[in-house]
Amino acid sequence: MCGIIGYIGHRNVEEVLLKGLQTLEYRGYDSAGVVLLDSNGTAQVQKCVGKVQNLIVQCKKAPVNDALCGMGHTRWATHGGVTNLNAHPHQSGKVTLIHNGIIENYQELANEYHLADQVISETDTEVVAALLNRFYEGDPVKTIRTVASKLKGTYAFGIIFSDIKDKLFAIRHVSPIIAGVGKDKKEAFLSSDVTALSEYVADYFVIPEDVVTILEAGKITLLDACDQEVFVNHLTIDWETGAIGKNGYEFYMEKEIMEQPQVIVNTVMPRCKDGLPDLSVDHIPDDIWTKYEKITIIACGTAMHAGLVAKNLMQSLLRLPVTVEIASEYIYSDPVIDDTTLVIAISQSGETIDTLEAVRYARKHGADNLSIVNVKGSTIARESQFVLYTNAGPEIAVASTKAYITQLVSLYILICQMAYMRGIFLKEKAMQFMSSLLALPGQIEQVLADRASVHALTKDMIGAKDLFMIGRGLDYTALLEGSLKLKEISYIHSEAYASGELKHGTIALITPETPVITLITQKKLASKELSNAIEVKARGAKVVMLTTKAIPLEDPSQWEHIYYLPALPSEFMIFPAVVALQLIAFYVSKEKGLDVDKPRNLAKVVTVE
Ligand code: M6R
To answer: What is the DSSP string of 186-230?
Structure first.
């Protein structure tokens, strides 16, 4: 979850590292640090708690302009609290180390090698630094291999040996890390993700597991356990450098919400031919659409909410039994896996460890698997049997918005393809379904253009301690996502509740101080949803209603806060509804003066279990 950047080359090393850390800050932001190896062989460390900006201020007081190479780190604390001492890099003798992951046996190692007096922080990482130093006798590759063989857990390490001024070292196990040579072939970079490299390299590669990586200016060498050089496939960067800027917006989340019409186009257009779904671009064999009797969807957080939408539609349109599994629960639930089930994993980052482990488990037990992933070349993408890439581009805000919308449209395309190939949709119906998808950007534009009205709905939410979001069916799945958005960035306790279930206990929590958002867009459920909204209103709740003009309301004037979404076919209403809910969360967070893009305790990429 931490961010790692390493650099060796002709540029000002400190500047490259600090800029890289700012780009990677969304991965973790409890504390940050850099190490700069100067021409005297001194590895100078600066680190501090808080945002990268604090580190920049600290570094400005004592700039190092002649560094030959260096590494930087943004931390998401696992072992040990958020303190300067626990921040990375960690040093021991000639070794300086940065780490993403968790070393499970660090205490055993500290005891076995009597390292206690050399370790001053509470971190697992410092124990590894001390161990590297213990074994180091001038041969870095041998030392790294020896120490790695003793570790249990997950790691991506960047390592500097201060007596070796022209090389950086890296090794990883499970935790991802990438590397690339600069466009001018005179520099080399290490990073936990491609966003920090896109300005400098034309291509990059994912460092293979358990291979010692040596970075020199203009050259990267990978060595396996037998000292044989390993050659890997390179991936090209197809995201514009500009795509990772804020493009004039104050927050990435706002920019990413506004990009949703475009990313829908980017995801749907390559998969639509002559008005019909066409997944040839994804090289997925046709029999996958007709062969399976059951579907299991595995994902976490927002991606899991996209799965719930798919479940609803797959069941109603395809009449297929679908289960949606929280990835962190999946492998511990003794899942029934057989060859009649297709396992679909969904992940923006493609690195979420719970989802990755679930994919591995399903494949090991014989399931076929298709993954819907945003980040190209990510671990889940590489380890999946089939991959459908959402073309959301880089998503930087911790709260996922545009990635979710592309996950949804990808799932809708799959559903349409399955329905067409199974003879459930005739050609005309399939074309109509695809044209509804292609109409979405314009309809979402309408909500975005009217965002001031959505903003006005948030008045009573800013000071709320608790908030409920109620609805049924697809509305309920949209609210689960809207509620996650609100709690994650506004810190308001928000619960999405199936509105019919409220009166079985939870309605006791409804008071005049509890704002309630009700989403009513599904014609077949509207009258029941409406009754449930009236029930909470009768208990004094301030109700904000999101609905459409296609839903008849007996007395609209009784609803003080009502917002009309564009009226679309019921199964497509989730799109404008979720965009309105994202905007609500965004405005509440902004009004509360919170850091919208970097909410407390969270990180964008969750690589620990
Ligand atoms: O990268 P992934 O899609 O696998 O991430 C899954 C969740 O961690 C993620 O969706 C998380 O819930 C977001 N912060 C929600 O906004």
So the answer is: S-EEEESSGGGTTTT-SEEEEPPTT-EEEEETTEEEEE-TTS-B-
